[in-house]
Amino acid sequence: SADPWDAELANLLSGRYAYCTPVKARPYGDFGDHLRIYRTTWNGEDIQLKVYRFDLAHHRPSVVRLLDYLWQNERRALQNLTSHRAGHGLVRFRFVDSDFESKGIRILATEPTGDLTLHQAMATHRHLFLDQEKLWREIHSLVEAVAAMHRLNHLHRAIRPENIFVKLDHDNRDYHFKLANFEWSIDLHEIGVLNFENDCLDYYYAPEVLAPIFRRESRTRGVGFAADIYALGLTLYELLVERFSHGELKKFRNADDYDPLVHRDWLTQLRANVDRKFHDSNVMRLMLRTMLQAESHLRYPNVDHVAEDIAQCATEASRVHVLLHDPEHP
Hints:
Elements: H1 4-14, E1 18-22, E2 35-42, E3 45-53, H2 61-83, E4 93-97, E5 105-110, E6 116-117, H3 118-124, H4 132-151, E7 154-155, E8 164-168, E9 175-179, E10 186-187, H5 207-214, H6 225-240, H7 260-277, H8 282-291, H9 303-316
Antiparallel strand pairs: 1-2, 2-3, 3-5, 4-5, 6-8, 7-10, 8-9
Helix pairs in contact: 4-6, 4-9, 6-8, 8-9
């Protein structure tokens, strides 16, 4: 059944924005109930509204503090990345709408990201990725987006298919990848002074980020560029090798269930799968193997090196099978 809060919010926004259409994709994390995304127009331009619902928090100070933290992270990242014209694969900032703050609502306006997340597209729109030249061009754009963030000392900290959008053209034949959802993005210099961590845990977090949980230490000790590279590698694995089964990334329900040895064994199996998939492509095989190393110092030193290898992969794509995993074409 529809959430009554959604109807109230839609009615509120309709007084300022025409034809607000909800976007089904929700940000990844336990705070998603406090966020809504809408497609609309403003001054003749198609835009997307990301609405932070502080009003839903009521008298829960911890939730209000978390939402403020996430809001400030995303606003700052979007404004900084857009002002530096960083990366075509990054969603572009448009403006902050402060007119509803008295009602407990904050709004960030960006360019439209698209209705599909990469997670959804891999399940329902596999045909989009059959053009290998196009696929590798978009992968390169995505990698360049992460590289652009890192050059500005921004860490994304939540790279995963749910936070990458597939923006379709008008006839649904062409597409572009857009990296979005910067709520957990931080400046490199903020490591060690973080106030909040995402409690929605899974294997998209690198071993060096999750292992401190096992030792009852702060997860921020493991945050760094290498953790983003690892998460990007897992995303490319799902796109190029095979989708993970339901729940495979969540082999632990909470911090007490996490086992670093199980995590390492899982990555060993993924690298073996990469070897089988790309036995005739040394560049592709080594690229994914390097990104999926359990030890951070064995991964690429920076994302620019990943982009260089992606460019080589693109030249091989015409002769190497790199289609999105399809059960009918293993």
